[in-house]
Amino acid sequence: MTGMQLVEGFAVLFAGGLALFLYGLRIMSGGLKKASGERVRSLVSRVTANRLYGLFSGAFASMTVQSSSTVMAILVGLVESRLMPGSQALAVILGAEIGTTAMAQLVSFRLHDYALLFFSGGFVLSSLGRKEPVKMAGEVLTGFGLLFFGLKLMSASTVALDRYAPLSDFLVYLDNPWLAVVSGIFVTALIHSSAAFIGIAITLAMQGSITLETGIALLLGANVGTCITAVFASSCMMRPAKRVALAQVLFNAAGVLLIFPFIGYFADLVRWFSCPGNVSTQPDSAQGIPRQIANAHSIFNVVMALIFLPILPQIDRLVQRLLPDDPKETGKIPAARFLDEMALKTPGIAIGCARAELSRMTHIAARIVRASLHPFFTPEQGRDVVYADLSVLEGMAMREEKLDYLESRISDYLIRISRSELNEKETTEVFALMHIVKEIESLGDVIETLTLKGEGRKWIPNADLTPDGRHELEELYRFVSAELEKLAGAVVSMDREPAESVLNGDEHFSRLSREAEISHLKRVCLMPEAESTHDLHMELINACMQVHHYCKSIARNIAGSTRNQK
Questions:
Q1: Dist. CA 242–CA 208, nearest whole Å
Q2: CA within 20 to 30 Å of 130's CA: 22, 75, 387, 453, which one?
Q3: Could you give the dihedral angle defined by the CA atoms of residues 22, 26, 31 and 33, in that order, rounded to the nearest 10 degrees?
């Protein structure tokens, strides 16, 4: 067999084996995610400031779904949505790096001899199983079998090239630790799976093609290369999410720099730790090195976690300094400014905090209402009045996200206040504030639904609203925006006077809305172009009436709470 034929055979067999390995890993990971994906997300999201708990939860989550990249993607999403502070994600990152070593341990046990048995068992379970858990178990076993069968093919492909000089020369190059690390970074980033690359390294070790030192250098590179997933996931997100990806890069890069000068000593430690039993007299045999590489992967990540865990606060400050908050971004990120945790010990002060946050929420709603007519009046995107880098619609979407976030945070804060010992006045006020939160969130939903219809003006006919129609709508929307601003001021001190002013203005609004409807109907009769925008005009009036309805409800809650306090 010629050298070219050897290369072609190797390429086909190795590529096919790698494809099966990656496909099997995807199937197995998919089955595990279906069985426990929500539990993993819940486990990760419940991480508290306890660093040790974060470490264990990250390791367990990564082992459960067999993918540190999945855990990193979850972390980036949780931090982006403000459900987890970036500082708390650091311990989970360290744990995820430990959990991902489980796959290397499985691969090193040479289970590929039983690959087809696993595949057959998984196929039977997924095909004949009637219950969902049984089908999921079958899917996991099927992926497990394909994964190891892929390893078997890769192993067979390298046997054929044992005496092929170019491959031998290439593997000699990998004896250079720097080249091995760079190769690990590049290939892992390319295939988006450190588990797959370490599987390749262990396969080469099974054939005696690489030494333990080379295997350690390759896995060091794989640890850095796996960061590419988090980097890509956070690339279009805010600074806090980007800091999660940066922290993973720093952890793994620092680990490489710490251990790289001592690869030889580390390899000796791993050989001593591994105790290969029947190959103890030949520690660097093809039978011993795969287990040693897997053990090196586990030891390295555990040691790095133990080194970094005590200094996580300092690392958090470093990451903050390297990638500080952008003032332009900070205001766009949903956040509670006034909900002080310490104030919960004193219900009266905590209620004041909730009022201040609720007032801010009402101001945000008023700004959304003021901007809501823009997409219906002009095809131009326009610029947000506060954040010029956002279009009007983008600014509205950003504030609607804030409303949803604040609704959740304020409601939770008020529930916690309600569990304290409150007097009758405080109890009445807390429940009134709970109702107001829901009304503002519902008001935001009305405008969001309206905006979705007008986005891109796709549903609007090829005609514009008449100048008179625009003027009437602007008057109505200015009226309800002013009502919201009054209520925002009233909520801060639960002032009855501005609330009653809103209730007293109901008759004036009813007259304005009736006049707008009548004027529009007259135009429809007299002007054909007005008929083409009839549905749009009535939709806008109806949305404004709904907003006014919620304003009245908020005003009643404020006035009623104040009345009961007297």
A1: 41
A2: 22
A3: 130
* Dihedral over alpha carbons 303, 307, 313, 314 (to 10 degrees): -130
Strand partners, 383: 391
Percent over 70 (pLDDT), the chain: 77
Question: CA 51, 54, 55 angle in degrees (round to 5)?
Answer: 90
Cβ-proximal residues to 531 (8 Å cutoff; 6+ apart), any chain: 524
pLDDT tens per residue across span 423-473: 888 888 899 999 999 999 888 888 888 777 666 454 454 456 778 888 888
Percent of the chain with pLDDT over 90: 11
In the structure encoding, which two tokens stand for residue 395, read together? 């600014």
CB 115 within 8 A of CB 129: no
Q: How far apart are CA 197 and CA 192, in angstroms?
A: 9
Taking the C-alpha atoms of residue 36 and residue 136, their distance in angstroms, rounded to an integer, is 10
Distance between CA atoms of 369 and 499, rounded to whole angstroms?
A: 19
Reported as a single tens digit per residue, the pLDDT across 207-261 is 777 788 888 888 888 888 888 877 877 776 777 878 888 998 999 999 889 988 8
Q: How confident is the model at residue 480 (pLDDT cuts 50, 70, 90)?
A: very high
Q: Is the pTM of this model over 0.70?
A: no
Q: How far is it, in rounded angstroms, from Cα 110 to Cα 155? A: 11
Q: What is the CA radius of gyration of the chain?
A: 31
Task: Please identify which residue in the block is written with the tokens 């080249």.
Answer: 179
